[in-house]
Every structure is written in C-alpha cells, then in structure tokens.
Amino acid sequence: MTDRRSFLKNTSFLSAALAFAPRHAMKTPTIGLQLYTVRDAMSKDPVGTLQRVAKIGYNSVEGATYTGDEKFYGMGPKEFRKLLRDNGLIIPSSHYRLGEAQDNGKVMQGTILHDWDRAVDDAAELGLKYMVCAWLAESERGSLDHYRKVAEDLEKAGERCKKAGIQLCYHNHNFEFIKEDNIYPYDVLLKADRNLVKFEVDFYWMKKAGQDVIRLFHEHPGRFPMWHLKDMNNEKDQNFAEVGSGIIDFKEIFKYKSLAGMKYFFVEQDICPGSPFDSITKSIQYIRKNLV
User: Fold this and answer.
1) In terms of C-beta density within 10 A (0-12 exposed, 13-18 middle, 19 or more buried), how is residue 79 classed?
2) Cα-flanking dihedrals φ and ψ of residue 133, to 5°?
3) pLDDT of 131-140, one tens digit each?
4) For residue range 50-63, what is the model confidence (pLDDT) as tens digits?
5) pTM of the model as a whole
6) CATH assignment of 29-290, given 3.40.50.720, 3.20.20.60, 3.20.20.150, 3.30.70.1530?
7) With contact defined as beta carbons under 8 Å apart, do 52 and 87 qualify?
C-alpha cells in the first residue's frame, strides 16, 4: 500500500513535470484566418503567404477560392493539403458560391448548382469538415419565394455533403435582413433542415444589419458552428476594423459559444487600412489576450 510519504513524493514529481513540460505539449487554442483577408498575397504567392500567416500565429485557415477553376489557389486538394500541413495549418472550412449567377456569361463550375459532386469530393480529399455558401449575388436574392428555393438548394447540397461527412453552412451579410412582407429572408433560410444546413455567423454584417446575435443563439441553439470575427469601427462610415479595436463586444459574445454550437472561428477583415498582415497581427494579439 502506498504510504503518505510516497504519495507526496510522487505528487511532487508530477507537479514538477507539469510545470516544466514543453509548451507544445499543452493544448494550443485553434485560431483561424479567413484567407480572403490576404487574398491579394494568396493570388501572387500562396506558399510564402501561408508561411507568413503561420509565423504570425494562426494555426487554422478558411479557404476563399475554388469556384470557377475548381482548384484551391491553383492547386489540387492533395497538393494544397500538403502545403498546409507543412506549415502546421489545418483547414476545417472553405467558401463556395450558389452558382445561379454567371461569370461573364458562363456557368460557374464547382458551385452548389453546378458540378457540386466534384466540389464535395475535392473537399473531402482536402479534409474539410464544412463547406460554406459564402455569398449571394444580387441576381441570386430576389423575393421570399426565391429565398425559399435557395433554402431547398441548400438542403440538397447539404444532403450530398452529409454523405461525405461534411456539414454545409450559409454565411450571412446584411442583405438577408431587408424585410419583405415583414419577414427577413434570413428567417426563411433558417427554416431549412437544421441537420443539413447550419450557419456561419459574420458579426460585422450582423451588427451592420442591426441584429442581436445572442438572441439568435437563444432562438436557434447549436445552429452556428462557424464564426467570422470581424469588427466595426466607431466612425460614421462603420468600416471594418481589427478584432478588439471596434464596437463589437466579442468578450460578451464568446460567453455564448457553447449555446451557439461554435466549433471554429476565423478572423476576417475585408478591407485593411494598411498591410493586411499588420491587421491580422493586431487581431490575433487581442484574441490571445482576451478570448482564448
């Protein structure tokens, strides 16, 4: 039987081992970046850009290309997956288009409505957990009846995703909160099957639309596994800002991450006042200190 002296001795050794354990042995928080923020750099030098993103401290990214050329920044899924792995990055999610609108009169391939099977297969090969409908062009919005059709299209796409072990999500802007017959189009989309269609909440656009995201979390618990951390400045133009430097109370929002069902979050800043690398550095510094 272990006596008290042996127990205390073993406990002391364990405490010392934990105290001097290397940092990498402890759990590192997942902090993501939506690559649209550094889109110009990614288009010119994806290898160097991802190295720089990782060096700043991000360990997760969300893709912003595929639609059209059906490539990930000019690479197939295997090649892009290796590049990410070489830089210690994971990619849980990537953005896609609906595909109802055309690009210079041509159908957009790799979209929800066109060649979606290949898009899902490539996503699975890359290792994505989420595929996100990123945006609706103006011609893809229309009436509430049209949004009901979009919801049906999302459900069908979500069924195909589910077969591959992937969850489909929809990313909001502010146009989904322009009422028609006293109904928000966003509420129409929320009526899609909750198991097939979940949501990536963009806090900047929610704020722009005057929406209470915490109320949405209470009304639709578990429906928001993906978050875009995007701040808004306190100026008249309500422009984009580095996370923590604007008027959105992320500390309060993060109290409800379990209710929302949040699994991953990504910093995104559509427009930066200077170098986007300076902006994403400021954002991650705030996140590390205040949110994770």
Assistant:
1) middle
2) -75, 110
3) 999 999 999 9
4) 999 999 999 999 99
5) 0.90
6) 3.20.20.150
7) no
